[in-house]
Amino acid sequence: MLFSDPVAGPAETLVAELRDVPEWHRGRGRYGVWVVPVQDAALLDYLDAAREQLADLIHPSPRRQPHLTVFVCGFHGEDREDDDFPPQRLARQIALLDDCAGAACSLPLARPDSFASAAFVPVGDPQGRLTEWRRALGEASREIRQSPYVPHITLGLYRRRVGAEVVRQRLSTLAAPPPMLAVRELHYVTYDTRDQLGPLETVHTVTLGPATITASA
Fold first, then answer.
1. Closest-CA residue to 34 (of 207, 142, 189, 193)
2. Helices within the chain (DSSP H only)
3. What pLDDT does residue 217 have?
4. Which of 30, 121, 138, 158 could bond to 13 as cystine, CB 3.0-4.6 Å?
5. What HEC string does 153-210 produce?
6. What is the DSSP pairing of strand 84-85 with strand 67-76?
């Protein structure tokens, strides 16, 4: 549910409690995710400015690099539980992505919106590129996901409980983002399971091909 939906949207924000969650990781050290890193200076500057404007509502996250999540894999290198992600699955995903990654592209961005838990910048997929990458990744491993996939770049997790009207008003004061997210690489990254907003460590990079240019008639 999104706050942009005045009928079915959340009534208020959910406060994120940032702590070690041993009942979740059960001693497993790293968690793996495929992402598109945000690399363009203009978009990085926009995200910094938007986060500053929402600073009284969201947790600061200066160590977590801005990114678009593509596919959630599970506990990196483990092979004991249903939500583990062993090395052979990663190798298979890499092989599948290498076959279908295609050329560099741009994905459209929309005005900021919000889940109950986090404010974000929506990302579109008009050419189905994200859909194709997710299909390939899903051939090798089940995604660990508790809710439907909504492409987005997170601005921040909420640290205060406020009502829907406050959220909508605050988001409306934010400028529109740059029109596009440039996608040149897909990264498989991991993070420390004891640090919810800790830095992402790149384990593998899939580089997209040269962008195709259509000549005018």
1. 189
2. 22-25, 41-53, 87-100, 129-140, 164-172
3. 39
4. 158
5. EEEEEECCCCEHHHHHHHHHCCCCCCCEEEECEEEEEEEECCCCCCCCEEEEEEECEC
6. parallel
* pLDDT tens for each residue of 103-137: 999 999 999 999 999 999 999 999 999 999 999 99
SS3 8: coil
**To which H or E segment does residue 113 belong?**
strand 113-114
With 0-12 / 13-18 / 19 or more C-beta atoms within 10 angstroms meaning exposed / middle / buried, residue 56 is exposed
Taking the C-alpha atoms of residue 106 and residue 124, their distance in angstroms, rounded to an integer, is 10
| DSSP-derived 3-state class of residue 119 | strand
**pTM of the predicted structure, to 2 decimals:** 0.95
- From the list 84, 77, 154, 86, the residue with the least C-alpha distance to 120 is 154
**pLDDT exceeds 80 at position 21:** yes
Q: With contact defined as beta carbons under 8 Å apart, do 161 and 12 qualify?
A: yes
Using an 8 Å Cβ cutoff, are 4 and 113 in contact?
A: yes
